[in-house]
Design brief:
CATH superfamily of chain B: P-loop containing nucleotide triphosphate hydrolases
GO molecular function, one term (chain B): GTPase activity
Distance between the termini of chain B: 36 Å
Radius of gyration of chain B: 20 Å
Largest sheet of chain A: 8 strands, mixed
Structural class of chain A: alpha+beta
CATH architecture of the largest domain in chain A: 3-Layer(bba) Sandwich
Number of strands of chain B: 7
Pfam family, one (chain B): Ras
CATH class of chain B: Alpha Beta
Structural class of chain B: alpha/beta
Strand order of the largest sheet of chain A: 4-21-17-20-19-18-10-11
Subcellular location (chain B): Endomembrane system
Number of helices of chain B: 9
Oligomer: heterodimer
Number of helices of chain A: 12
Helix content of chain B: 25-40%
Membrane topology (chain B): Lipid-anchor
Bound molecules: guanosine-5'-diphosphate, magnesium ion
Strand order of the largest sheet of chain B: 2-3-1-4-5-6
Largest sheet of chain B: 6 strands, mixed
Shape of chain B: globular
Main location (chain B): membrane
Strand content of chain A: 15-25%
Radius of gyration of chain A: 25 Å
CATH architecture of chain B: 3-Layer(aba) Sandwich
């Protein structure tokens, strides 16, 4: 039934529903292109998806049993630290008198819908390109966010909050008054950095590392740690200017929504591609999942124009432009193998408490410095029930780093610093949260741009190891500009109340923009 | 600006393509039935504020944007919804049978306590009817959901349906508030980025000099 009324001719066909593909689909549809957006799997997001617990189990099974379907994922290992069925019910924690649940695997299965576990967890800088795009395009109305409440680091063998705002610097007891002044001065100088103006403070530091610069400036080891590892998220070899740019990005995003520069999408990062898909659909884009492609052909018709034809479920679909995720793209269409780059090591943990107690439910970014000399820095995100990531009483914790050996060897030493990974009695009083479940895996880094052998086939990169979505947004805009030169990238979509319908049925909807809308204060 | 309503309910329309979801939404929000525009532009959501027992209730009603056509509703569509209208077409047997699939879809993706209602639309087309009213009622009993036959074209029972769903949500909410000691729930701190925030000054540049 589905295939009879399936349209076959489009201006743009987008294959894959990852972040880059979805932004391009929305942008094309928004300016009036006729778009078909499809995915070979039964859910949105590709390698950017989030899963509930059952969906995640399916994903794990697929990686293990059918490696060809999930070629990008390898070295996957899942482990339970809790019993299959719980023997007893709830017991009481003496300290608080609150019942502390003893979790079993059966409980996870029963509450599977309450989990939203990301394969590509990422944050948004409050003044970064994605937040600006969500606002300017009005796609923000499809998404909700929570502020990251704190940035932590690992210093002197313990977790330490990183003073990042001016208020934090004042309040922290971890650094003395002289250090405070030094830190303020350094951060202010970084905010003043401008790329255009090269006769500045940083002009002679082009070929040196940020660490060398900070040391040269006489910063104490603690301050160097905060700036280099926690604010810039770097390691000892981070080039100075690159690090300064990272710090500046961080500092410039402070003070917009909360105490840190970051937002986390409610229900996980996997929601965001879907928001762009919705906009695409609202402007007439056709959606189809479970639609693998068998073949892609290009044919030059008159006037040198090339038409792309896709064979899918024994149907031929034609388009002027094909936008395709790198994982779905036939090899012969790519002009080069994706540049050899460092793969990504990832881990997800479900725990029974936060890594550092706080008054309200925390949402944490933790940046680990490399623990061993040839390690990379490790990024950790801890999200709780208020973000729609897990049932009450649990936390989901993501670990991401560049691959050195394999995910488990790369990340387990870090996890052991902050979790109790011994299994055993969940009610026992410990200073670390218990790890209840863990998953380690490696992902191929397919984030570097790939060009295609045909002008009107556009290949979208996969997720990168970075903290934010900035590279995806940038690439999507570039692809859009190639398909629709001269057109505006995601102009603001009207609010429903701005669309006025005339009684006369022959007229299209009229577009009216509220004039005083910007003057309206936020409630 | 003062809030012009007491509470906001997010409602969804769900059901097979062509059953009249967009028409129902348009009838309720604009009191019109306009055949020509519906196929040409995707409706995002519509807002109508109604009066329920002296309270101003703002209904934000979301349309599927056509993503139901090949069963590709995003999971994001269901987030935060408080009520769902399940719509079938009384002249289309298949759309009636699919209600069960849509209910499964809702159970998978919407919050467990979402209010639901089944609508048998196009009841003005009696001569082409394939699904009797009794079968609709039977299905509703099976799932313990309210049911009504509607016509977006003749404006029959559309108002009634939305008022009923809204009233049920309100009742459930008030019951919950009575049970829980903190009525506001755990939704504080959720952000929708807006332009207005963007106009605040950059804190580092503007305040650093003090220290
Ligand atoms: N006779 C009749 N036609 C209707 C009614 N509601 C919708 N339609 C028609 O059914 C078709 C599909 O309606 P639409 O609202 O686009 O359905 P949707 O795909 O569920 O949004 C359109 O041609 C409408 O004019 C109704 O109550 N009675
Ligand atoms: Mg419709």
């Amino acid at each position: 039934m589905m295939d009879e009324d399936f349209p076959t001719d489009f201006q743009v066909i987008v294959v894959g529903t990852g972040m880059v593909e979805s932004i391009v689909a929305a942008a094309c549809s928004r300016i009036g292109k006729n778009v078909l957006h499809m995915d070979s799997s039964d859910h949105y997001g590709g390698l950017w998806a989030s899963y509930n617990f059952e969906g995640l189990q399916k994903f794990i099974k697929e990686v293990n049993s059918d490696p060809d379907r999930q070629k990008q994922v390898y070295n996957l290992s899942e482990k339970w630290f809790i019993e299959k069925e719980s023997a007893q019910g709830e017991t009481t924690d003496e300290n608080k008198g609150e019942p502390r649940k003893v979790w079993s695997q059966a409980d996870f299965a029963a509450e599977y819908r309450k989990f939203n576990i990301d394969t590509t967890p990422k944050l948004l800088f409050s003044r970064g390109p994605l937040v600006e795009l969500l606002i300017s395009s009005n796609i923000a109305r499809y998404a909700e966010f929570r502020c990251v409440t704190r940035v932590l680091t690992w210093l002197n063998d313990q977790l330490m909050p990183v003073p990042c705002s001016r208020a934090d610097v004042f309040a922290t007891e971890a650094v003395g008054i002289v250090e405070k002044r030094m830190l303020m001065k350094m951060l202010t100088s970084i905010v003043g950095y401008s790329e255009e103006e090269m006769n500045n403070e940083f002009k002679d530091w082009n070929n040196k590392t940020l660490k060398e610069y900070l040391t040269h400036k006489g910063l104490t080891p603690n301050l160097i740690h905060y700036i280099l590892y926690a604010i810039a998220g770097g390691n000892n070899s981070l080039p100075c200017l690159e690090g300064v740019k990272e710090c500046k990005k961080f500092l410039m995003s402070l003070g917009r929504y909360g105490n840190t520069p970051f937002l986390w999408p409610m229900y996980g990062s996997g929601e965001l591609p879907q928001c762009f898909c919705r906009l695409c659909a609202v402007f007439g884009g056709v959606y189809c999942l479970n639609r693998p492609i068998d073949k892609v052909e290009t044919k030059t018709v008159d006037e040198g124009k090339t038409v792309v034809t896709i064979d899918s479920k024994s149907k031929k679909l034609n388009c002027d432009h094909l936008v395709i995720g790198v994982h779905e793209c036939p090899e012969e269409l790519m002009s080069s193998e994706p540049a050899e780059s460092c793969d990504i090591s990832k881990a997800v943990f479900v725990t029974n408490g936060t890594i550092m107690a706080s008054e309200k439910e925390p949402l944490t970014l933790l940046r680990f410095p490399p623990l061993a000399d040839d390690d990379n820095a490790v990024t950790v995100l801890e999200v709780g029930p208020a973000t729609g990531s897990c049932p009450k009483g649990l936390f989901v914790v993501y670990f991401i780093t560049k691959k050195t050996k394999d995910a488990e060897s790369d990340l387990k030493p870090y996890a052991e610093r902050i979790f109790d990974m011994s299994g055993g009695d969940q009610t026992a009083a410990t200073d670390k949260p218990k790890c209840l479940w863990s998953l380690f895996y490696n992902v191929k880094d397919t984030s570097s741009p790939v060009s295609s052998v045909v002008d009107n086939v556009h290949v979208c990169s996969g997720p990168d190891a970075g903290l934010d979505f900035d590279r995806a947004v940038e690439q999507a805009e570039q692809i859009f500009k190639k398909i629709c030169p001269g057109e505006e990238f995601l102009p603001r979509a009207p609010n429903p109340e701005e669309i006025v319908f005339e009684d006369d049925v022959t007229h299209g909807p009229e577009f009216q923009r509220e004039q005083d809308e910007e003057a309206e204060p936020k409630e | 600006m003062a809030k012009t309503y007491d509470c906001l309910f997010k409602l969804l329309l769900i059901g097979d393509s062509g059953v009249g979801k967009t028409s129902i939404l348009f009838r309720f929000s604009e009191d019109a039935f306009n055949i020509s525009f519906i196929s040409t532009i995707g409706i995002d959501f519509k807002i109508r504020t109604i009066d329920l027992d002296g309270k101003k209730v703002k209904l934000q009603i979301w349309d599927t944007a056509g993503q139901e056509r090949f069963r590709t509703i995003t999971t994001a569509y269901y987030r935060g919804s408080m009520g769902i209208m399940l719509v079938y077409d009384v002249t289309n047997e298949k759309s009636f049978e699919n209600i069960k699939n849509w209910i499964r879809n809702i159970e998978e993706n919407a919050s467990a306590d979402v209010e639901k209602m089944i609508l048998g639309n196009k009841c003005d087309l009696d001569s082409q009817r394939q699904v009797s009213k009794e079968r609709g009622e039977q299905l509703a009993i099976e799932y313990q959901i309210k049911f009504v036959e509607t016509s977006a074209k003749d404006s029959l029972n559309v108002e009634y349906a939305f008022y009923t769903l809204a009233r049920d949500i309100k009742a459930k909410m008030e019951k919950k508030q009575k049970e829980a000691s903190n009525p506001s729930g755990g939704r504080s701190g959720v952000h929708k980025p807006t332009l207005n925030d963007a106009r605040k000054p950059v804190t580092w540049l503007s305040r650093c000099s003090v220290l």
